[in-house]
Amino acid sequence: AGVPAAAPALPPARHLFSDPAEVEALRRNLLAWYDRCKRDLPWRALAAAEPDADRRGYAVWVSEIMLQQTQVATVIDYYTRWMQKWPTLQALAQASLEEVNELWAGLGYYSRGKRLQEAARKVVSQLAGRMPRRAEELQKLLPGVGRYTAGAIASISYGQATGVVDGNVIRVLCRLRCIGADSSSPAVIDRLWDMANVLVDRSRPGDFNQALMELGATVCVPKSPLCGECPVKQHCQAWRRKLFGKAHPVPDVEDCGVGDCPLCPPATEPWDSSLGVTNFPRKAAKKPPRAMRTATCVLERRGCHGAPEYLLVQRPSSGLLAGLWEFPSVPLAQDLQEEKEREELADYLQVWMGQPVAAKGLQFIGEVIHIFSHIHQTYVVYSLHLDGDVTLDPALSPSRWVTEDEFHASAVSTAMKKV
Ligand code: SF4
């Protein structure tokens, strides 16, 4: 007690953008490249042409939520259908969760659609349909909108000069400034946000942020970046280091990389010249995904027109794949014998159908593997043909019989389509 805490030292200059002339030049070069090379994307067209500010914010918001964890090429079609079906916040607020899940089916990370719709309802009912205009308010008032999404909506739709940091930006900034400390650590992430806020162009913030992300998506890509074509290579410390074999000499470079610089790679894993610029960024090793086994049964009956029908049941409204439909499925303990797995499934089906199900009657079809973000899921697939009808217990989860076409139009996950 009584000893004043030392002020945190500023990181060495090679990790910062401290020269205003360089910042200006970087903005200019990046924006000129973006104007020449940007991809034509439906949400960009809407953000540029939509005169109504609330609709504009909504259009950008939907695109940002869909783009989280999902490739641009996959999102385009979903986005177009979404905006046709629900062009405004008001339209989305009136949709049912079932409709949202049906449109979202196949896009993954299903809670995103649900949260988006809940947030739209909040804007309509509590904010009189008016989108907050500033990043701080967007993040505070809209459920499911984090710091990144708030910054993207505020800068792209409303011209607020605020930076954004996503996976692409992390990669570009770590390379521009040779940041080799764990890029998922809060200390490094905080620095990157500071940097993004310093860099963002004051008159074209939305374009600048999109340009930085676009650079990461198309030029400064993870594995083989196209440094020769890069519009900001003259500002890139990693590129210089690769070319000249050592860090660009800056006044205090001697302080960096030898002591305990918080942004340099750990001293035990210095620059690997075979990796070049892809020395950056670095991440602490990820936890391996959790392995899970689930037995699932495709129950089939003859429908009234003779076509086969399949039983779908609805998952709980929270947790993984919330509210989606699936074939009746039961999680299994690891390392069960096949016979045991079959019995577990038969017992589970019996509860559903209120009548005995013979484990031997279940026909083994095969296994389907599906990787969710953090789960390595194996579905052990069985089928069972029913002769008569069954009465399902209405006290259990909602369930329904569907034809194959109806199955494909339902809110089912990609994993169930594989099954
Ligand atoms: Fe990325 Fe290479 Fe450009 Fe540096 S020069 S920002 S590493 S593409």
UniProtKB/TrEMBL annotation:
Note accompanying the cofactor annotation: Binds 1 [4Fe-4S] cluster.
Annotated HhH-GPD domain residues: 66-218
One Pfam family recorded for the sequence: EndIII_4Fe-2S
PROSITE patterns given in the database record: ENDONUCLEASE_III_1 (PS00764), ENDONUCLEASE_III_2 (PS01155)
Entry's Gene Ontology cellular component terms: mitochondrion; nucleus
Subcellular location: Mitochondrion; Nucleus
Gene Ontology MF terms: 4 iron, 4 sulfur cluster binding; 8-oxo-7,8-dihydroguanine DNA N-glycosylase activity; adenine/guanine mispair binding; metal ion binding; oxidized purine DNA binding; purine-specific mismatch base pair DNA N-glycosylase activity
The protein, known as: Adenine DNA glycosylase
Organism of origin: Cardinalis cardinalis (Northern cardinal)
